[in-house]
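Sample entry (72 residues):
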Amino acid sequence: MPAPSGFDYLVRADGTVVITHRGRAASTLRGGRAAEFLAEVDDDPQEVMARWTGNYRRGNERTARNHPRNRG
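Predicted structure, serialized as tokens:
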């Protein structure tokens, strides 16, 4: 399974953390959850952000990509 990629995060002035995936907001963390995230993000940022947003690979991406509805 490839490592997660495409995640980024932004810390706002009020302490809110916005996690984005490929330019789209994936999750917003406030208060204690934001502080927990910031303490943990130093380890492996992409993996941590994938875990906090719930965006894990599920193994069916190739099947979904090849579905007629998702083509073109």
